[in-house]
Each structure stands twice: as structure tokens, then as C-alpha cells.
From TrEMBL:
InterPro entries hit by this protein: DUF2293
Residue span(s) of domain DUF2293: 138-224
Lineage: Bacteria, Bacillati, Actinomycetota, Actinomycetes, Kitasatosporales
Protein name: DUF2293 domain-containing protein
Superkingdom classification of source: Bacteria
Organism name: Streptomyces graminofaciens
Pfam families membership: DUF2293
Length: 227
């Protein structure tokens, strides 16, 4: 009988997924889906004393690591890749009870991560509310004539997390006068003028801004209380 080259893995027992049909050299059972090489001869898992193990395919690194930690006996499963001329891992064989314990640990971690995400989301929401309140207060300080609900709307729009708007810029987070004023101007431009309609009619942005500049300045003076 021709011998088979053993795969070059040194992490405990190594089990092979054969590319061709093989029968056990000891009990003659087969063809085998998995085999172990002993002195170059194929053995079925039962003859190799690995028949009680279950196969865990590769893909979940944490589950694989924990299953091997929990299992007193485990084996690496490999298959030869002809194109690359090398053996490649396909998964592991572990004790069934060990796999169950590993799955429980991973589920517990997943639940812990879920709870952490919920806590983080609540914290970010609370931070966003505080920041929006502070931004609205700055609007009212700089533009005391701005209605409170409008100031709140401007602040909420400008400070949406991940929006890239002025409220989320470094200056915005610092509540600088320039950033707050920029947010107010943008709101006036879009809400209180024909700016959007001009853009829809094909007027270029710079020209559209020139056309509505007087309306914007009048509203800003009004909200500043300048008469």
C-alpha cells in the first residue's frame, strides 16, 4: 500500500479530509470522509480513537479557540489544496460537551456585547441631548430674538452625530460664535428664503446666495435685536 505524506501541522492530532476515496488500513471501512495518518497509513477516526469527537468548521475564531480550550482532546482538520500545493485548515474536531460549553460562553459574550451597545447608545443619546441644549442656548445668547423652538430646531439639525454638519465640527463642539452663527445662517437660508427654489431652477450656488443675502441679513439683524 502506498503511503501518504503527513500534513505539516504540529498542534496535536491532525485529521485529513481526503481528496480521493480511502479505506481504513485497520478495519477496512470506507470510503472515509475524515482520516488520520499513522506511519503513512490511513486510519478511520474510530480506529484512531477520535470517533467520539465532533467537527467544528472554521470561520468562528472565538468559538474554535474556546472549544479547543474546553476539550481535553482535539484535532486539526486539514485538506490538501492542489492549486496551492499545501494543506489548509478546514476546522477542528472537539468533544461535543466542550463545543456546547464554548457555545454558551460565546452566547454570553454576545449578550454582554449587546448590553454594552445598549448602554453606549443611551450614553450617546444623553450626550447628544446635552450638546443640543448647549448649542440652542448659545444660539439664544447670540440671537436673543430667535424663537426658542427655532433655536432648538437649528441646534438639533446642526448637531446630528455623524452628519458632518457644523455642530459636529471642532468649532461646533467648542460652541464657537462662528460655528453657531454659521448654523443659524444656514437655517435662515434654507427656511426663510427662496434659496432652495433658486437652486432647483438651476441658479448656481454663489449667485443664489447673492440674491438672498439681503433677506438673510435682515433676519439676522432682527434676531440680534438690532432693529
Amino acid at each position: 500500500m502506498a503511503t501518504l505524506a503527513a500534513p505539516p501541522f504540529r498542534t496535536g492530532p491532525v485529521v485529513v479530509q481526503p481528496l480521493r476515496k480511502k479505506h481504513c488500513a485497520e478495519c477496512r471501512s470506507g470510503p472515509m470522509g475524515l482520516l488520520m495518518l499513522e506511519e503513512g497509513a490511513p486510519r478511520c477516526l474510530d480506529c484512531a480513537d477520535l470517533g467520539h469527537l465532533v467537527f467544528l468548521p472554521r470561520g468562528d475564531t472565538a468559538l474554535t479557540r474556546r472549544a479547543r480550550e474546553e476539550s481535553s482532546l482535539s484535532a486539526v482538520v486539514v485538506r490538501f489544496n492542489r492549486r496551492r500545493s499545501r494543506y489548509e485548515r478546514q476546522g477542528v474536531l472537539v468533544e461535543e460537551a466542550a463545543l456546547a460549553r464554548a457555545e454558551e460562553r460565546c452566547l454570553a459574550d454576545a449578550e454582554a456585547r449587546r448590553r454594552r451597545r445598549v448602554r453606549d447608545a443611551r450614553r450617546r443619546t444623553a450626550e447628544d441631548v446635552r450638546f443640543t441644549d448647549a448649542f440652542a442656548a448659545e444660539i439664544r445668547r447670540l440671537f436673543p430674538g430667535c424663537p426658542a423652538d427655532r433655536a432648538r430646531a437649528i441646534a438639533a439639525h446642526a448637531s446630528v452625530r455623524g452628519s458632518g454638519r457644523v455642530g459636529r465640527s471642532a468649532a461646533g463642539r467648542a460652541l464657537s460664535d462662528v460655528a453657531v452663527t454659521s448654523a443659524v445662517i444656514a437655517s435662515v437660508r434654507h427656511v426663510d428664503t427662496a434659496y432652495d427654489q433658486l437652486l432647483m431652477n438651476g441658479v448656481v450656488r454663489y449667485e443664489a446666495r447673492l440674491r438672498i443675502a439681503g433677506v438673510v441679513e435682515t433676519r439676522l439683524r432682527e434676531w440680534r435685536g438690532e432693529g
